Each structure stands twice: as structure tokens, then as C-alpha cells.
């Protein structure tokens, strides 16, 4: 086996576009067609790795794998699972995790669910509600005011779309200033670098991964940008032109699954399409916004992303023993390690 492919799984390389991930608190979640792995670095420097089998609904219900429909299913699932993964990572990383309230415990008992799952459902519902308020109700309300002076249906929807994009950029720019979120964005960059490294066929090492850019065409950020743009066209053609704010909001919410489905197909196509001037132009807006949602990661962040990626691909020994929480490293003389140009064993975990 050549050095270029020596770190691929025994079953062969996954097709380009089938491996993805998500930055979490002090770590990265990666998923391949078969497994989902999450690696999180604890405050003591150790790395906790969790791996589970990936259940693909379209294998059980083929209709969910149809074009457009699969984009809607993926969006809803990723929203729920992403929130759950973030909460789990925060717990591992040493953050404070909120206890379920009495009400949530009662709901869990009635629905025969875990209280933590009820919390996740409420969190997702709240996130959706806030998104609707920021990106639909607010822009549509402003559209209703502008409609008094702008009669063109097309121009009005373009203005509404630009307002949505502006609100989105303002929101992302503001949250990126938070220290904790900035670190998540650094892990986001580590996730992209690791996937680029794998898709290039290079051995999965920190040195190789750091050579790549933090901007990836299949990123969720690019998906949201595409959603913003596609919504302008869909709302113009199929949306209501009523002066009633509630009718306009309702119309857009009903069309949102169609917008998400089309945007998902475009994102997948852009990730696989031949690099032409037109394709580069279509990728450009999403990549520019990623300059806000990603940041240059440190080597230890890339290390965590690679651990998660290798585990999701089923590679043996994805987690180095010196980073395993259950592994006790043998005593080494600091002088000998220093002579080799490396840090002492006890310093590697700092």
C-alpha cells in the first residue's frame, strides 16, 4: 500500500462528500457513512472519544433519500443532533450543564422520554423560534413598511432577501466576538482542514492538515448563505405579495422546506462540481462568510479533529495512548525527551 493511502480504512476510501463534521465545545464531531465520532479535549489535556454507529433513515425509508426531501430531513436532523452533540461536548469539556426542570421531567414521564431529550427538543424549538423571528418576521415586517413606497414585487423580495442576509451577517459577527464561540470557530477551521487532508489522499497528520485552508465549499455556513439567496427567487415566484405581514410570514414558512431542499442539492453539487469560473463564483459568497465562522486552529485543535475523523472512518488506534483518559503513560526522563526535540511527557497534556 502506498504511503498516500496508508491511513485509509480497510474497506476503502469514502466517496468525496460523504464525510462531514461539526465543531463543538473544545472538540469536533465527524461522521462517515457508517460511524459518528466526537473527540473533546478535557481541561487536563486528555481527549475523550465517543463513537456510535450512524443510522441513516433513508435506508429504512427510501423516500427520505429522494432529492429535495433529503435536504429537508438532513436539515431537521442536524439541528436536533447538533444541539445534542454540543451539550454533550460542553459536559465533557467541563462546562456547566443545566439540569432538567420539573416541567421537563413531567413531560419526559408522560412521553416516555429521557429528561435530557426533552431539553433538547425544547432547545431546538426555541432555536427555530428565534431563527423565525430574526430571519423571517423581522425582515418581512420591514418589507411591509417598504411595500408602501416600492411597488415592484421582484425588487421588494430582493430587498427582503438583502435584509435577511444583513441580519445573518450581523448576528454571526457579534457572536464571533465571544471568547467561547471564537474557540468553537477555531475548531470549525480544524474540522475543515482535516476533511481537506483526507479528501486529498494525504496521511492524516497535523502537519499535513495545517497546510489546507479553513474554508470548505460543503460547510453549513455556505448552506445558510445559499438558503438566503435561493429564498429570494422562491419567495418571488411562489410567495404571496399580500400586504398582510402574517400572510407573508406564513407563506415563507410554508416554502422554507422547499428552499432548504433545493439549497442542499446545490451545496452537494458545488462540493463535487468541476472547478470552473462559474462554480468558483457560486462558491465565493459562502466561502467569504466562512471567514467569520472559521478561524485558524492550533495544532492541538487539529489533532482533536483528526482523532475524530479517524474514529469515524473506523481506523484502528485513532486515539493516541498518551491522550487516552484511561491510559497511564510510563515515566520518562524529561532530559531524554528534550534531547529528541520533543516536550516532556507531562507537558504534552497541558
Blueprint (SSEs and pairs):
Blueprint: E1 20-24, E2 27-31, E3 35-41, E4 47-53, H1 57-60, H2 69-92, H3 102-111, H4 115-146, H5 153-175, H6 179-200, H7 206-209, H8 220-238, H9 245-272, H10 277-293, H11 299-312, H12 334-339
Helix pairs in contact: 2-4, 2-9, 3-4, 4-5, 4-9, 5-8, 6-11, 8-9, 8-10
Description:
By secondary structure, this protein is α+β, with helices and mostly antiparallel strands. It is 58% helix and 7% strand. It has a four-stranded antiparallel sheet. Residues 1-11 and 329-350 have low confidence and may be disordered. The longest helix has 32 residues, at 115-146. It has helices at 57-60, 69-92, 102-111, 115-146, 153-175, 179-200, 206-209, 220-238, 245-272, 277-293, 299-312, 334-339, and strands at 20-24, 27-31, 35-41, 47-53.
Write a short abstract of this structure.
It contains twelve helices and four strands. The protein is globular. The longest helix has 32 residues, at 115-146.
Index terms:
350 residues, disordered N terminus, alpha+beta
Total DSSP helices? 12
Strand order of the largest sheet: 1-2-3-4
How much is the radius of gyration in Å?
A: 23 Å
Strand content: 5-15%
Q: Helical proportion?
A: 55-70%
Mean pLDDT: 82
Number of strands: 4
Alpha-beta classification: alpha+beta
Q: What global shape is seen?
A: globular
Amino acid at each position: 500500500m502506498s504511503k498516500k493511502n496508508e491511513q485509509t480504512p480497510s474497506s476503502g476510501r469514502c466517496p468525496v462528500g460523504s464525510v462531514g463534521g461539526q465543531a463543538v465545545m473544545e472538540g469536533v464531531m465527524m461522521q462517515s457513512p457508517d460511524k459518528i465520532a466526537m473527540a473533546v479535549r478535557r481541561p487536563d489535556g486528555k481527549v475523550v472519544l465517543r463513537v456510535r454507529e450512524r443510522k441513516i433513515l433513508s435506508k429504512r425509508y427510501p423516500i427520505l433519500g429522494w432529492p429535495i426531501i433529503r435536504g429537508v430531513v438532513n436539515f431537521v436532523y442536524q439541528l436536533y443532533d447538533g444541539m445534542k452533540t454540543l451539550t454533550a461536548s460542553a459536559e465533557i469539556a467541563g462546562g456547566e450543564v443545566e439540569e432538567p426542570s420539573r416541567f421537563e421531567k413531567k413531560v419526559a414521564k408522560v412521553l416516555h422520554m429521557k429528561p435530557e431529550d426533552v431539553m433538547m427538543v425544547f432547545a431546538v424549538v426555541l432555536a427555530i423560534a428565534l431563527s423565525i423571528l430574526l430571519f423571517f418576521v423581522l425582515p418581512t415586517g420591514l418589507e411591509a413598511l417598504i411595500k408602501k413606497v416600492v411597488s415592484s414585487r421582484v425588487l421588494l423580495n430582493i430587498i427582503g432577501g438583502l435584509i435577511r442576509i444583513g441580519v445573518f451577517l450581523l448576528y454571526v459577527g457579534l457572536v464571533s466576538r465571544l471568547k467561547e464561540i471564537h474557540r468553537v470557530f477555531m475548531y470549525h477551521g480544524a474540522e475543515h482542514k482535516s476533511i481537506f487532508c483526507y479528501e486529498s489522499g494525504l496521511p492524516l497528520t497535523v502537519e499535513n492538515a495545517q497546510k489546507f485552508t479553513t474554508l470548505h465549499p460543503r460547510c453549513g455556513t455556505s448552506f445558510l448563505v445559499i438558503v438566503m439567496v435561493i429564498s429570494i427567487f422562491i419567495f418571488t415566484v411562489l410567495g404571496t405579495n399580500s400586504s398582510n405581514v402574517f400572510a407573508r410570514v406564513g407563506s415563507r414558512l410554508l416554502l422554507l422546506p422547499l428552499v432548504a431542499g433545493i439549497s442542499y442539492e446545490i451545496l452537494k453539487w458545488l462540493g463535487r462540481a468541476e472547478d470552473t469560473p462559474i462554480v468558483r463564483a457560486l462558491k465565493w459568497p459562502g466561502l467569504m462568510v466562512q471567514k467569520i465562522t472559521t478561524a485558524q486552529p492550533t495544532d492541538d485543535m487539529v489533532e482533536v479533529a483528526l482523532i475524530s475523523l479517524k474514529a469515524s472512518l473506523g481506523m484502528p488506534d485513532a486515539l493516541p495512548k498518551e491522550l487516552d483518559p484511561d491510559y497511564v503513560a510510563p515515566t520518562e526522563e524529561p532530559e531524554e525527551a528534550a534531547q529528541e526535540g520533543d516536550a516532556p511527557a507531562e507537558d504534552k497534556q497541558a
